[in-house]
Design brief:
Blueprint (H helix, E strand, L loop, with lengths): L5 H7 L9 H11 L19 H14 L12 H14 L8 H8 L1 H5 L4 E3 H6 L10 H6 L5 H9 L16 E4 L8 E4 L7 H22 L8 H19 L19 E3 L10 H22 L5 H11 L6 H13 L3 E3 L8 E3 L1 H4 L2
Parallel strand pairs: 1-4
Antiparallel strand pairs: 2-3, 5-6
Length: 357
């Protein structure tokens, strides 16, 4: 497919005057001319692409125009809805307008990963409240709509811990530390209690682990102070709880995350030990990545200026029925909601765009 020049893109906008509202066309024109930035987020990178105009050109060619051969055969389709959604929910929302907990989730992933809340299978099976799954966090999150009060209480009481440094000495994983922590090699010590030498080794490990744990196990990243870190994680939990308590609007199940909890569940081996440090580390990485993609890329909140623009477009009396339905479908695509930016006490609310549909 031949790429369209800037002039071709500007000229072709006239074909869509009957499909998009004039405010949307004006926004597209400003982006094509380079007067307004078009931001996109990628799961593989933390920052936005630098070539905003190229991203817009690719979106316009593939999602709207369908290539140069179909410029005169424009039809309202899922591609139009997809472009509008990306324009308002992703492209026109820079990082600076995101709620503070989402900004921190983008800027400090390693710090949050090494302090992320978790629950061990070992504690559920062998702990003080063993065999009572109803008291576990995973059960509360699975029944989040019925147990919202208990989850809120758990969120309010949360204090971040360096999870890799909180392991029980008898269940420690000894690690060969290298400069690059991604290449750490882990050896599990599973001593045979009937072997005297094993007991001696276990005693030695128990005595030395408190002093060596931080150097041997994992370098902990501390870019945030404790209060900001705690409030960030709490707001991420509240954010996810809000989405989970509205399953008919926010299709978390379709995204593969409906039954997933925002906390990490650390599995154990058949011998009752925590899994190896490499696997555990990857579980934490995947969990934080899931929260980032769900809350920022797939079901992001809508900032006030863009929310007001969409609201004014749908309320425009001169708008024809087909165009109004198009914008309503955009509002329903991932669910529309707003969030305030006060860290530590963020609140989330369904948009009036959803309530009026």
């Amino acid at each position: 497919m031949q790429s369209l020049s800037k002039k071709q893109l500007l000229d072709s906008l006239q074909f869509y005057e009957g499909i998009y509202h004039q405010k949307t066309l004006d926004r597209l024109e400003r982006i094509v001319r380079g007067k307004e930035k078009y931001c996109t987020r990628n799961r593989a990178i933390k920052d936005y692409t630098k070539n905003n105009q190229a991203v817009l050109r690719a979106s316009l060619e593939n999602k709207v125009y369908g290539g140069t051969e179909q410029l005169n055969q424009v039809k309202v389709s899922k591609n139009h809805i997809s472009l509008l959604w990306e324009l308002y929910y992703l492209g026109s929302q820079p990082r600076s307008v995101l709620p503070l907990h989402l900004q921190n989730l983008l800027k400090h992933p390693l710090d949050l990963t090494t302090h992320w809340p978790y629950e061990r299978d070992h504690d559920i099976v062998f702990g003080e409240k063993a065999h009572d799954l109803r008291t576990s966090l995973r059960y509360l999150w699975k029944e989040s709509k019925k147990k919202s009060d208990l989850i809120e209480e758990a969120i309010n009481n949360f204090q971040s811990q360096k999870w890799l440094l909180q392991k029980h000495p008898g269940n420690v994983k000894h690690t060969n530390y290298q400069d690059d922590f991604l290449d750490n090699e882990t050896v599990d010590y599973n001593p045979d209690t009937s072997n005297e030498h094993s007991n001696t080794l276990l005693s030695f490990l128990k005595e030395s682990v408190q002093q060596e744990r931080q150097q041997l196990i994992f370098p902990v990243h501390e870019e945030l102070n404790e209060d900001i870190r705690n409030n960030t994680i709490k707001d991420v939990m509240r954010h996810y709880l809000f989405l989970k308590n509205h399953p008919n609007i926010f299709q978390l199940f379709a995204a593969g995350a409906y039954y997933a909890t925002p906390i990490v569940n650390i599995p154990m081996t058949i011998l009752g030990h925590d899994v190896g440090i490499k696997r555990m580390r990857n579980i934490f990485y995947r969990k934080v990545a899931l929260m980032r993609s769900t809350l920022i890329e797939e079901m992001p909140p809508l900032c006030d200026p863009l929310h007001d623009e969409l609201q004014s477009i749908i309320a425009d009396e001169n708008l024809d029925k087909k165009t109004r339905q198009l914008y309503k479908k955009v509002a329903c695509k991932s669910g529309t909601y707003t969030a305030d930016g006060k860290l530590g006490s963020s609140s989330f609310a369904l948009s009036s765009l959803m309530l009026d549909l």
